[in-house]
Amino acid sequence: MIKEVEIKVRPALVNDEKTIRREAIKKSGLPASKVEDVRVLRRSIDARGAKPWFRLRTAVYSEEPFVEEPALLDNFQDVSEHDRVIVVGAGPAGYFAALELIELGLKPIVLDRGKDVRSRRRDLRAIQQFGEVDPHSNYCFGEGGAGTYSDGKLYTRSHKRGSIIKALRLLVEHGANPEILQDAHPHIGSNKLPGVVANIRQTILHFGGEVHFESHVTDFLLSDGSIKGVVVNENQEFKADAVILATGHSARDIYRLLARKAIKIEAKPFALGVRIEHPQSLIDEIQYNQPVREPNLPAASYKLVCQVEERGV
Ligand SMILES: Cc1cc2nc3c(=O)[nH]c(=O)nc-3n(C[C@H](O)[C@H](O)[C@H](O)COP(=O)(O)OP(=O)(O)OC[C@H]3O[C@@H](n4cnc5c(N)ncnc54)[C@H](O)[C@@H]3O)c2cc1C
């Protein structure tokens, strides 16, 4: 049997497998001699008391072994000769759409106006050092999309759109730290995110998809009211049975193109993010109630909330 129990441990012991095992078995009430494995499912910090704790949701395996789930990529097959679907945009939406297409047995042809994640970095340096902005390769455009050089925070307050566990597992299978599967506030880290993005591209190519950079979609090929493909850089046609537009909210030219072609588009509510900066040491001190953050505690986070028209935002 598998019994789930929650335990709490001090930060100094959060990576100590013996302590976690002992505490979980004790809490489960199962005979220790029958326990074959203990796994941490979820990890969050409780800093409400005088000293912070880690709360760990654990699974205790009694008289049965823990069995690793097969990798999601094991379900993928070669799609090089299969039906083609064009995906416009190599941001998170485009790359995850491409992975989903491969899983469904369709061949994704990804087109992005920007450059690959490594070359794009050089163009960001030109922005920072000389104020020169390449309209196709910048903070918004290029492989990985808008947040590629950010911390890669993965949590959401929206729980209406189903489980995000599949997305997290795919990120782990492409090089993200497996702890993102357990952490209540997971993040990939700015040092790792570009590598994860490049690995996703390798998967798309490995299974027979295509990824084309510096390929700016400038027109749609329409016939009898349905889409037959797209035009790239005003001169090259790509044909396919379906087109997924994953161009993000900065792609004004795409919105103009849709309007010009009289294709129905609909405004949706949007979330506006603001950046507020405080010294990390101040936040750590307030949240953890200690002058210097002890080892194993991550940089503390916080959120600001205010009331607007009787709604908390
Ligand atoms: C600085 C910053 C930090 C962020 N940090 C986080 C974070 O930590 N966590 C988080 O969840 N979100 C974060 N975000 C938000 C997140 O980046 C976006 O929600 C996400 O990138 C949207 O993904 P997308 O694929 O829909 O669009 P985008 O990421 O905008 O990708 C669209 C892609 O389409 C391409 N494209 C556009 N037009 C065309 C065209 N005509 N032809 C071909 N290609 C085209 C672009 O080059 C781009 O690569 C951050 C955003 C920014 C700007």
Structural summary, described in words:
It is a single chain. By secondary structure, the chain is α/β, with parallel strands linked by helices. The chain has three domains: about 1-60, Alpha-Beta Plaits; about 70-260, FAD/NAD(P)-binding domain; about 280-310, no CATH class. The chain has helices at about 15-30, 90-105, 115-130, 165-175, 195-205, 250-260, 280-290, and strands at about 1-10, 35-45, 55-60, 85-90, 105-110, 210, 215-225, 225-230, 235-240, 240-245, 305-310, 310. The strands form four sheets. Strands 6-5-4-10 form a four-stranded parallel beta sheet, covered by helices on one side. The chain has a three-stranded antiparallel beta sheet with strand order 1-3-2, covered by helices on one side. A three-stranded antiparallel beta sheet has the order 7-8-9, with helices on one face. A hairpin with a 6-residue loop joins strand 2 (about 35-45) and strand 3. Helix 2 (about 90-105) runs parallel beside helix 5 (about 195-205). The longest helix is centred in the middle third of the chain and has 14 residues, at about 115-130. It is globular. Bound molecules: flavin-adenine dinucleotide. Flavin-adenine dinucleotide binds next to helix 2 and helix 6.
**Run of helices and strands:** EHEEEHEHHHEEEEEHHEE
Question: How many distinct beta strands?
Answer: 12
Q: Give the integer mean of the pLDDT values.
A: 93
Low confidence ranges = none
Tally of alpha and pi helices: 7
Count of the domains: 3
Ligand set: flavin-adenine dinucleotide
| Estimated structural class | alpha/beta
Sketch the major β-sheet: 4 strands, parallel
The CATH homologous superfamily name of the largest domain equals FAD/NAD(P)-binding domain
Into which percent range does the helicity of residues fall? Answer: 25-40%
In whole angstroms, the N-to-C terminal distance is: 43 Å
Rg, rounded, reads 24 Å
Major β-sheet strand ordering: 6-5-4-10
- Give the CATH level 1 class of the largest domain: Alpha Beta
CATH topology label of the largest domain: FAD/NAD(P)-binding domain
